[in-house]
Design brief:
The complex is a heterodimer of chains A (466) and B (262). Chain A folds into three domains: 219 residues, no CATH class; 64 residues, no CATH class; 129 residues, Cytochrome c-like domain (Cytochrome Bc1 Complex, Chain D, domain 2), CATH 1.10.760.10. Helices cover 44% and strands 4% of the residues of chain A. Chain A contains 18 helices and six strands. With 262 residues, chain B is α+β, with helices and mostly antiparallel strands. Chain B has a domain of 121 residues: Cupredoxins -  blue copper proteins (Immunoglobulin-like), CATH 2.60.40. In chain B, 40% of the residues lie in helices and 22% in strands. Chain B is built from five helices and ten strands. The relative contact order of chain B is 0.12. Classes of the chains: A mainly alpha (466), B alpha+beta (262). The interface between A and B is medium-sized, with 27 and 26 residues.
């Protein structure tokens, strides 16, 4: 019949051929890999002109941090011998509960997030245990426990395959959900679902949506994060990054991720930290490289320890203030106003030079002349992006609007930007130079809080920069 | 041989065509079991809005059955049979009047019967409750790409330094008419809480009052229902309806937390 219909036959043949080709031509899933930071490589001419060394560098970084599909921190033996042992991931691979209070909060959050699954386990209605999203490792554990259901039913004795504890099967089943903490590989997949399109595969802030954004997404690879609660522009704590994930950064494209569970966000912080440490080690290795030394193992280990040491030091740099926020009085606000409005060369705190006499972020130092075009442009931050100096009259504070948040911001400045650390900054009052104290910083914070309330025209103009 | 093939083909096509309405009706009957129907409503005006939907649905159902029935009847009654010649007809003026007037009346009926629901949701804001259009419980800002809630300071002032700002989580008291001001920081967003049957666009530059009264404590989804950019899917939120005293405690906690230093 087909022979009698040559056109039909031809159509069928074409269809078969094109389907075969289409299957053949379908792109293989590209293998995910971290890419090298070209800007850092270009700074070292020797490395830039030596492709073999670049491949070595890539291999060295993979040795420390794995691949996007199988990321892992290399835990140095001396870290594990410490007391308590130090794991680069927040709770290590084995969920070592170093911080009981934090672990308790995590378990509470898991109980809430997986209440339907836990209820189904409690009532024995195992068909109703639904698969949660972005938690493949949780599901794998559940399937293992489910497969091990003893013949005697859920309340029969059962030895937990993960913790080794003896108990009933029902306890182990509930523990799978209650004690869930994602593996790095799961967090990496979660990162690719939620963060990748802005922050990029290697955390360079170069994802596909990044170029539409102002301000630009953070490039983690320098280890600099703007908003921390730490002194001396230190590397962020786990809590600082967690705070950014739950609160978002208002007025930027960074949203709040509260719709996910605490465990997922903790895992995400671990993974962001991996990308940041990886990028920083890469930068150090690139600048250290000489054709004589090559990419050597000792240098790699030293740099890895150096970078990780900075991250570990963060916990000692928290800005704390003993007691509640001091009482806010008109005198203190007035003192803050004087500090704010007086330029540095007249012995003030110099805020006015960038934030302007009305606090709108239009001070003279907020702008500079572009050396090439000779046109006025905004000042740039460490990542090379132009900065919009904060308009304090709008009441939008990206790190938070509580007095302690403003206090910490003024105390420590903002990492990677011209906003300096103010504690110890020398001011001259009544002819007496003295370093700024905690109380001076509170006064400034109290004044800045009033800027968001008062209309700009009510803010005094007589003092300051003119 | 050929006629058998034709008969078979006709049977298959007929069965396929019949399957469409049968499956449609079956889905409708089973919708509730398959969770395809509306989620339960927990706001005071939700039932009124559902009622409107059902009124219109029944009108459409009856019209659908009648017109489809007529269609089938015409196909059967007037299908080509024997040698009868086609007839020319100029139409029937009365019939046309009737089939124009009936839909017009139905439309007028729909237009008037929805007025109460519309005015309840969009115009008659609570006047004697703790929260009014002048003194709303909160401001909700849509921004690319999350929701932010602002609760006023203890004096009810939204411009004060002690305003409480929360992303994602919206806390409201149970059994209390709640008024909020809806604003946008950038582009169009839409504040949609399916279980309240509440949907209102947030328009940049506009200050739009919205009200609801939740009758049941619980957590309810808030989503953005207006395509607002590439991150539209991220714009989720959660409305937490708390018993009144618990809500007051939560608000007091938040105010106290402002002045903590940890």
């Amino acid at each position: 019949m087909i022979v009698r219909r040559p056109r039909t036959a031809a159509l069928l043949a074409a269809f078969a051929l094109s389907s075969a080709l289409a299957c053949k031509l379908e792109p293989d899933t590209p293998e995910l890999h971290y890419s090298l930071n070209r800007a850092e490589i270009a700074k070292n001419e020797d490395l830039a002109s030596d492709p073999a060394a670049q491949v070595q560098l890539e291999g060295a970084l993979e040795f420390l941090f794995g691949t996007p599909k199988a990321p892992a921190f290399l835990a140095l033996p001396e870290w594990l011998e410490e007391d308590p042992p130090f794991y680069p991931s927040f709770w290590g691979e084995d969920h070592v509960r170093a911080d009981e209070a934090a672990w308790g909060r995590l378990v509470e959050s898991n109980k809430k997030a997986y209440r339907e699954q836990l209820e189904a386990i409690r009532t024995g209605n195992l068909e109703r245990v639904e698969r949660p999203r972005y938690a493949d490792d949780l599901w794998a554990r559940w399937e293992e426990v489910r497969g091990g259901l003893p013949e005697g039913g859920p309340d029969a004795a059962y030895s937990d395959p993960f913790s080794g504890e003896e108990g009933t099967w029902r306890q182990s089943a509930a523990a799978v959900f209650e004690n869930y903490y994602p593996k790095l590989a799961t967090s990496a997949e979660f990162y690719r679902q939620q963060c990748y399109h802005c922050h990029g595969a290697s955390g360079g802030g170069d994802g596909s949506t990044s170029r539409f954004l102002e301000p630009r997404p953070r490039d983690y690879r320098r280890g600099i994060f703007k908003f921390t609660a730490l002194k001396g522009k230190a590397h962020p704590r786990h809590e600082d990054l967690f705070h950014v994930l739950t609160e978002g950064i208002y007025t930027t494209a960074m949203p709040s991720f509260r719709r996910f569970t605490d465990a997922q966000l903790h895992g995400l912080v671990d993974y962001v930290r991996l990308l940041a440490v990886r990028g920083e080690v890469e930068g150090l290795m690139a600048s250290d490289y000489t054709p004589e030394t090559g990419i050597d193992f000792e240098g790699l280990k030293a740099n890895y320890e150096l970078v990780m040491g900075k991250w570990r030091a963060a916990k000692d740099a928290v800005i704390t203030y003993a007691g509640p926020v001091p009482e806010i009085t008109p005198e203190r606000i007035e003192h803050g106003r004087t500090l704010f409005m007086t330029p540095g060369d007249k012995g003030g705190a110099n805020c006015v030079s960038c934030h302007g006499t009305s606090g709108r972020g239009d001070g003279a130092s907020a702008f500079e002349i572009d050396p090439v075009t000779k046109l006025q442009r905004r000042v740039k931050d460490d990542w090379g992006n132009e900065i919009q100096v904060r308009d304090l009259t709008r009441g939008v504070f990206r790190f938070g609007r509580r007095p302690i948040d403003l206090y910490r911001r003024i105390y420590a400045g903002i990492n990677g930007t011209p906003m300096p650390e103010h504690i110890g900054f020398t001011v001259t009052e009544g002819g007496q130079p003295h370093p700024m104290s905690e109380e001076d910083i509170w006064d400034l914070a109290f004044f800045v809080r009033t800027l968001g309330v008062q209309a700009a025209h009510e803010i005094p103009h007589e003092a300051g920069g003119h | 041989m050929n006629s058998l093939k034709h008969a078979l083909l006709r049977l298959v096509v007929t069965l396929l065509l019949v399957a469409v309405p049968v499956l449609g009706v079956w889905t409708w009957v089973k919708a509730e079991d398959w969770h395809l129907w509306f989620p339960e409503t927990v706001s005071t005006y939700g039932a009124g809005i559902d009622h409107l939907f059902y009124v219109i649905m029944w009108m459409v159902t009856v019209t659908f059955v009648l017109t489809e029935g007529a269609l089938v009847w015409f196909v059967l009654r007037y299908s080509g049979r024997g040698e009868r010649r086609a007839v020319y007809t100029h139409g029937n003026h009365t019939l046309e009047m009737v089939w124009t007037a009936i839909p017009a009346l139905l439309l007028i009926f729909v237009a008037f019967s929805q007025m109460k629901a519309w005015s309840t949701v969009k115009m008659n804001f609570p006047e004697d409750g703790p929260y009014t259009v002048e003194h709303p419980l909160m401001e909700v800002y849509g921004s690319q790409f999350d929701w932010r809630v602002r609760y006023p300071d203890a004096q009810g002032n939204f411009e004060g330094a002690d305003v409480i700002e929360v992303p994602y989580d919206i806390y409201v008291p149970e059994d209390t008419p709640v008024v909020l001001r809806l604003k946008s920081r950038d582009v169009l967003h839409s504040f949609f809480v399916p279980k309240f049957r509440l949907k209102q666009d947030a328009v940049p530059g506009m200050n739009i009052p919205v009200w609801f009264e939740a009758e049941e404590a619980g957590d309810y989804d808030l989503i953005c229902a207006e395509l607002c950019g590439w991150g539209h899917y991220k714009m989720a939120g959660r409305v937490h309806v708390l018993p009144k005293d618990e809500f007051e405690r939560w608000l007091a906690d938040q105010r106290a937390a402002l002045y903590r230093t940890e």
